[in-house]
Design goal:
By secondary structure, the protein is of the alpha+beta class. The chain has one helix spanning 47-55; strands at residues 7-8, 15-16, 21-23, 30-32, 37-39, 42-44. It has one helix and six strands. Bound molecules: zinc ion (2 copies).
Length: 67
Amino acid sequence: MPEPRGLECSRCGRRAPTVAISTCPMCFTVVCQKCAHFAYGRTFCSSRCGEYFFHGDADDENDLSES
Ligand SMILES: [Zn+2]
Ligand SMILES: [Zn+2]
């Protein structure tokens, strides 16, 4: 009987105990502690998601000029 204890890291593919696994709050990618990127007191799957989470929408470059 395999016990579903632990989750598989989406990055490195390793199975890690649930306590060592984090879910990215941005893209919900499951990553282990080795692959996780810590930023702003949260755990992201990558620095990109961390930036995105903090800065918000990346569509900032194009300012919509309403007129
Ligand atoms: Zn990993
Ligand atoms: Zn992510």
